[in-house]
Write a structure and sequence with these properties.
394 residues; alpha/beta; Rossmann fold; 2 domains; nine-stranded mixed sheet; six-stranded mixed sheet; 14 helices; 15 strands; 21% strand; binds benzoic acid
């Protein structure tokens, strides 16, 4: 039997070592790191959620499914892109499953729920898509990191591109929720600064896809061009309806790159030719890093990766860098956050760094649909950082 004295001596030794950061207390060192995936696995953003999940798992798989030497265990919640269930679903992972980190999500409204829980509980939160401004602006937090974009980042450079092509009067159309409104904000800033005028702003509630009346209105306005934010299944429907309404080829269509991302199959591509978008990734980026990533992803999942897969992959890469720096001891928050803040992420999109507010500083590419590809035409904005307005970190 172990004496009380032996127990005390052993405990003191463990605590001493743990405080030097050399080893973890025995129980924690053996315990698996609990990773919560909160993503949409049903609904209009299913493709996006699955791609984030795949990308994240692939990054971990490449490291033997270990974080800082520790095994991992996954917990999964389908958030259905349903904002009303955001807090409840995030709490399932934190309170019931006791996860060490939440990877999620796609929809900005749902992210508000995760963000509330992350700020209240201090759980590590890595956002692999949702671009809601507040998460890395006024409501930024030391434990919240994003590997995607802020909603206004991809559209900020779009306006100048349009004006340079002589399209000075535009209609803006989107789903009316945080992502659409904030993408509109970025578009407006860039477009007005370049000398453009927005003649009409149109919207419909997420995830409504009854575009007909709005397309009829666009046809009667006859703007120089249309710019928009849509994504996933809704984006595909918008492109098809735009063509069916006879607008394709008559009124040029622009958007943040989510409009065409991951959607250009045999059926959709004919309706999408010539659509110009701005985004922080394209499958056609010519680099060894992108080629290797695409090949490995295609082998592993028997499908092609898109920007959402890249963002999930980078969420994995970021967590790996952080966990490695603290030898798997995620409770060493100061060192963990410092490593994540200073990370240089070697992404298929190109290397990027973290802003002080914990959002990627990254290049935004100009792309045009040719065949079934978003072909890169150049860089629309170099090393673009979000303003991080109101964030007091760093
Ligand atoms: C969002 O809700 O933040 C979002 C969803 C899909 C693509 C881009 C942003």
């Amino acid at each position: 039997m172990t004496s009380r004295r032996q127990v005390l001596t052993q405990s003191a030794a463990i605590l001493g070592a743990a405080s030097t950061g050399l080893i973890l207390p025995a129980r924690a060192q053996n315990a698996k790191i609990r990773v919560g995936l909160m993503l949409p696995y049903t609904g209009t953003f299913t493709q996006l959620g699955v791609a984030c999940d795949n990308g994240f798992r692939m990054a971990l798989e490449e490291k033997g499914n270990k974080l800082g030497g520790r095994e991992i265990e996954y917990f999964k919640v389908d958030d259905e892109s349903e904002p009303a269930k955001g807090v409840e679903n995030a709490n399932k992972l934190v309170q019931r499953d006791k996860v060490d980190v939440i990877i999620g999500t796609v929809h900005s409204g749902v992210q508000m729920g995760i963000h509330k829980v992350a700020r209240e509980t201090g759980v590590l939160s890595i956002i692999p898509n949702a671009g809601m401004h507040a998460a890395t602006r006024a409501l930024c937090a030391p434990n919240v990191f994003r590997t995607s974009f802020t909603n206004s980042q991809p559209t900020r450079a779009l306006g100048k591109v349009m004006v340079d092509k002589g399209h000075k009067k535009a209609v803006w159309i989107t789903w009316k929720y945080a992502a659409g409104d904030e993408a509109g904000e970025g578009f407006k800033e860039g477009y007005l600064a370049a000398g453009g005028t927005i003649v009409k702003e149109l919207g419909l509630p997420f995830p409504n896809v009854e575009f007909q009346a709005l397309l009829t209105e666009i046809a009667s306005i006859k703007p120089d061009a249309v710019a928009c934010f849509f994504s996933g299944g809704g984006a595909s429907k918008f492109i098809r309806d735009y063509a069916a309404a006879g607008l394709a080829g008559k009124i040029p269509l622009y958007g943040s790159g989510f409009l065409t991302e991951g959607l250009l199959d045999d059926e959709l591509a004919p309706s999408a030719q010539g659509i110009v978008t701005t985004l922080h990734y394209s499958a056609s980026l010519a680099s060894k890093r992108n080629d290797a990533f695409r090949l490995a992803y295609a082998k592993m999942f028997k499908m092609q990766p898109d920007v959402y897969a890249v963002q999930g992959y980078d969420a994995g890469q970021l967590l790996i860098q952080g966990a490695t720096a603290v030898n798997g001891d995620l409770s060493n928050k100061k060192a963990l956050y410092a490593a994540m803040e200073n990370a240089v992420v070697d992404s298929p999109r190109g290397k990027w760094t973290m802003s002080k507010a914990h959002n990627p500083v990254q290049d935004i590419y100009l792309r045009v649909v040719k065949g079934k590809e978003n072909v890169v035409q150049g860089i629309a904005a170099k090393a673009l950082a979000d303003s991080g307005a109101g964030c007091k970190l760093g």
